[in-house]
Amino acid sequence: MISNWSENESKIVYGGSQAYYSKASDEIHLPIRGDFYDLQEFYATALHEIGHSTGHTKRLSRDLSGKFGSPEYAMEELRAEIASVFLEQDFGVEVDESAVRNNSAYIQHWKTVIQKDPNLHVQAGGSDNFNGSRGTKEIGRVRGYRNSLSRGDVIECR
Fold this sequence. Notes:
Blueprint: H1 2-8, E1 11-14, E2 20-22, E3 27-30, H2 39-53, H3 71-90, H4 97-109, H5 111-116, H6 120-125, H7 137-147
Parallel strand pairs: 1-3
Antiparallel strand pairs: 2-3
Helix pairs in contact: 2-3, 3-7
């Protein structure tokens, strides 16, 4: 699925020491897989960045202009992290307790922004954005893409 996303949606560039999505070039940048602590960490990071890439104008056309620390930035981070958590579950990626703690810590990082607007988490992953039985539009976009692939393509990655 990750390779197919790179080939057909948002190119994934491997190398370097940072993971990020560039809206200007519509590219996902990831360190090489061997630089991650384990495969789960790689998948969590890749799916988080894929979550960001669903916001491109070619896909869901979200406003991705929020500056670091702003409510808009926090909203986008919440969307990507929620998408990553649900997609890991969908793809059967085994998540251990430390991964859950990492997800929780990442979301906790945005606590001050969430506290300023208690509805922020509902807007990021709440019922007004649901697509199908569960999941945000971002998750629905990736699920739809995944469902168009053959069964053998779903877990493959570089």
